[in-house]
Amino acid sequence: MLTGPLAPPPTNSPPLLQLQHVDKRAFDHFLRYLHDEPVSFISVSTARATLDAAHQYLCPGLAQLAVSYLEKHLTPSSVLEIYQNLGLYANDLREADYDRSPNSPSAPPHEDDASVISTLCTNLLLKCLFVIDSNPAKVLQQEHFEELSAQEVAQIARRNTLNITSECILFSALDRWAAAECRRQGIEPLPTNRRAVLSDDVWFSVRYLLMDDKDFVGGPMASGILTNEECVLIVSKILRHPETTKNDNLRCCAPVIHPSRLSHTPRMAYKQQNENCNMLRPGKKEQRDNRKNRRRECASQGQRTCARIGNCLIQILACVFD
């Protein structure tokens, strides 16, 4: 019985304790586990919330059950829901570790409960990144991508193992995330505001030099995210304009982007192993969702975009023919 000056007043019924930041279904699973009752999950969202509760209350056995369920149901459609905020529980990884195969051996866990849970979450995080690497076109087009944190978006965009067929897909996803972040901050999603909510390192993690001139003009250039000077420099490199030109306009554009930010090296992709083929094969539902997402992303750029493209093309032509 609680006593002392801070104790609640005595009542006939026991006082109620309100728990914050715990999903009701996840807490039910937590209580069932403590009472040695069977725990069964019926959805990824419940298992993911249960993993949060297991981490909060340092229950590695329950975390193992949740992680096992999530690994079995890890698909391109569910990966972002599992991946979101998972890095908060995982061990600190070096940049090279994020490109590590999920089948690579990991260090043995320590004996304390927190370290066991961290190791479980680290292995699950690597498997999530592997699924994202293998299916970026399907994953990046999902609306759930817009709900990730800026750090998680940067982690995905910088991956050298992202098996992406076109860098336009990555840029479009970043542009959508930036617009959603502007709305969350209560500011208008203008090009300058969308550029500001993500660092330049993230925007230039897109390998623009792997695009052709048509894709670049119709995508990044039309979006207004990049400045006119940046567009002129990138297009001149895509068109392989000689760098030894004496054109003053082109020389003044050169310092705009540091050469290290413009990469023409293709990304490396994991070699899919047979054991992962079934997990990564898209189903009919995923295909329908992708078609809906592609239609949803179509929008008119308007007169401002046309004027911007015309202005940049004039500068490019001036650089080429001067």
Automatic annotation (TrEMBL):
<dbReference type="GO" id="GO:0005829">
    <property type="term" value="C:cytosol"/>
</dbReference>
<feature type="domain" description="BACK">
    <location>
        <begin position="116"/>
        <end position="218"/>
    </location>
</feature>
<protein>
    <recommendedName>
        <fullName>BACK domain-containing protein</fullName>
    </recommendedName>
</protein>
<dbReference type="InterPro" id="IPR011705">
    <property type="entry name" value="BACK"/>
</dbReference>
<dbReference type="InterPro" id="IPR011333">
    <property type="entry name" value="SKP1/BTB/POZ_sf"/>
</dbReference>
<dbReference type="GO" id="GO:0022008">
    <property type="term" value="P:neurogenesis"/>
</dbReference>
<dbReference type="Pfam" id="PF07707">
    <property type="entry name" value="BACK"/>
</dbReference>
<feature type="region of interest" description="Disordered">
    <location>
        <begin position="278"/>
        <end position="297"/>
    </location>
</feature>
